[in-house]
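QA checklist item 7 of 12: single-chain prediction sanity check.
[x] sequence parsed
[x] length recorded as 254
[x] structure emitted
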Amino acid sequence: MLGIQGCQGSGKSTLASFLQILLEEEYQLPTAVLSLDDFYLTLAARKQLADSIHPLLLTRGVPGTHDLPLALKTFKDISQLKKGQTLRLPRFDKAQDDRAKENTWPEVEGPIRVIIFEGWCVGVGPQSEEALTPAINELEQLEDGRQIWRKFVNKQLATYENTLFNQLDKLVVLQAPSFACVYEWRALQEKKLREKTRLLSDSKVLSDVALKRFIAHYERLSRHCLASLPAKADWLFKLNENQKIYEFREGSHA
């Protein structure tokens, strides 16, 4: 099980697709690719979280807004696939901000030898209690003054680390130069999504103003990933502002 971590727009999906082709065509290793994003809770489930715990949990992204049982079951089911058996892999429709209909999920056939799991916070552990106290941006300052949201997210991240991320055999980290690049890179993704869904009247593609607010939800953990994950990476790729790799490092435990 190979983890790929990187901030939004860093190229995780592209790398995962490339590795799948390489592993299957050059090494005859059947490979399944999944994203942490595939396991977002449904919109209805996030509305329940927002009502019962904190309004900021309506926005998908942070730990606690994923269907962890579904993720754990999916990884277990993939690993147990025998020859000729098939399995549908969950998918999330970001344009609709809801889980895609099951009949549209892609299908894999067993046996699977490699699982590639990519995501913006894959592999990272929780922050210390002390680190949670100061608000990191205006969103936290104005809407999470009592720290209910960030403490909930941090507790959920600890669960992710102990149940999901600990299944990783290796970790690839695509490191952005700074958090400042995230908005620009994510805006490019949103532009492509907007062009792809421009004919859908009910599309939930984000406006520029909404995008800035959306990214604020990710800022705390994105900065935490930038600071803590290079030391945990088996393979570290450093990116410049143009998303180009300029340095490669191999961890001592790779």
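[x] summary fact logged: The mean pLDDT is 92.
[ ] second reviewer sign-off
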